[in-house]
Design a protein that fits this description.
The protein has 115 residues and is α+β, with helices and mostly antiparallel strands. It contains six helices and three strands.
Length: 115
């Protein structure tokens, strides 16, 4: 099963995952979250932007340029598709993937409670 090389690239995947957790981030914040260099983050962001996966907004704050990146619907769908492809490669149907995040309620015994 071929993976989308645009999403599967480690640097771009870090960007998409970080923005999936917090959909809008300033460049500096995203750089810290992804641990990418300025050049790598900029190059990967431009590539994702060209594919419609990111929105990039450039503004000025107190006379200094501020770049804000946002995950688009296309980007989120591409990331979800990639995650589903990975789960399918592991033999897990898509339906099971949604159940992973579902909390399971387990009755607590009295000695488990801490006040």
């Amino acid at each position: 099963m071929p993976f989308d090389s645009l999403v599967a690239n480690p640097g771009r995947l870090r960007i998409l995952v970080s923005l999936a957790q917090e959909p809008t981030q300033e460049f500096v914040q995203l750089r810290q979250a992804t641990k990418l260099t300025d050049g790598n983050l900029s190059t990967h962001a431009k590539r994702l932007h060209s594919a419609g996966m990111l929105a990039i907004e450039k503004t000025f704050r107190a006379g200094k340029p501020v770049t804000t990146l946002s995950l688009t619907r296309t980007g989120r769908e591409a990331l979800e598709s990639h995650a589903n492809d990975l789960l399918a490669a592991l033999g897990m149907p898509k339906r099971e993937a949604m159940m992973i995040d579902t909390p399971v309620s387990v009755p607590a015994q009295e000695e488990d409670w801490v006040d």
